[in-house]
Specification:
Elements (H helix, E strand, L loop, with lengths): L3 H9 L10 H10 L5 E7 L7 E8 L7 E7 L17 E3 L2 E3 L7 H11 L8 E7 L10 H10 L6 E4 L11 E3 L1 E2 L1 E10 L3 E2 L10 H12 L14 E8 L7 E2 L2 E10 L5 H14 L2 E9 L2 E2 L4 H14 L4 E3 L7 H4 L5 E3 L13 E3 H20 L1
Parallel strand pairs: 3-6, 3-7, 7-18, 8-17
Antiparallel strand pairs: 1-2, 2-6, 4-5, 5-19, 9-16, 10-14, 10-15, 11-13, 12-14
Helix pairs in contact: 1-2, 1-3, 3-9, 5-6, 7-9
Bound molecules: zinc ion.
Length: 374
Amino acid sequence: MSDAIEFAQRLIAAPSVTPATGDVFAEMEAMLAPLGFEVHRFLKGEAPDGPVENLFAIRRGPSGSKHFAFAGHLDVVPPGEGWASAPFTPEKRGELLYGRGAVDMKGAIACMVEAVRHVPADTGTISFIITGDEEGPAVYGTRALIDFMAERGEEPDLCLVGEPTSVNRLGDMMKIGRRGSVNIWLEVVGNQGHVAYPHLAENPIPRLVAMLAELDSLTLDDGTDWFQPSNLEITDIEVGNVAHNVIPAKAKARISIRFNDVHSGQSLSDKVMAIAEKHGGHAKPIISGEPFLTPPGVFSQMVSDAVESETGVTPEQSTTGGTSDARFLRAVCPVIEFGLVNATMHKRDEAVAMPDLDTLSRIYTRIATAALTS
Ligand SMILES: [Zn+2]
């Protein structure tokens, strides 16, 4: 039995709803320092999105050795109501360990810590890139850590993010990329008036409807070898007109696009803005992340081999799902995500199978060793 389960319990017991600071990072430092890691912790940002705590820890191998990084987050989403046990009091029932963050992703971070105990220090340099702001706006988190590392000239050769990527059983999926995401606010301004005198008013709703119909009918692309087709969804329509005899002055809507590497956030924003203007409206985009792809190759094979050796399963190489901090780390080095089964993430009664923690620790040991020695 490994210590991963104990590490996971210690992390779960430190409440860390996003943005996280304090105790959970002290716990992490207390685990890493005895393993020979030099631990840096710093706060970034102000309310409401901060302050956020970030941790960079490094154990240096012999000079000239390779540098492998584990990355992840210690913040969690709010627990919500109706848990069978207290969400920040880890509880074992049968094979399962319950607690907020058990799979997303304190469990995986516990496995990373356990994993490095089994990688001799002279194998190479290992670091931990751990933020308290992944589940929130991610403004003061991993991006600040990347700046922190750049200032010190710390450059990992490869990075593994421990997000819960497995679907039905540990090992069945890894992420070699993620789609980008852009949300766009649309608005059409008309001229308010009485419905009985439409010639004296200008109704913005028909123009908004035509705009949305055109946007909804777009085929953005047909997908690529590694990505599903980009998708545009209408996520809100808002007029807020309570009077049955008034033509409203304004109509608004919002769309959300998840897109592959055929596009950039800017290229899609430009396209939508042109359509909005054609219908006499305006569009205001906010890009939350660009897509990334670590093309299948040496690194994905390392991860795949490690998973197969411990589970007998060959992981599917996927780019599905939401965004993650890998969207920032990809600027530093090749990055792949692999972690626990995600069935209960963000849910009530989040739980991890304790045998999976032991298995994932061994998988992480194999990946780190391969990354440093190949
Ligand atoms: Zn996560």
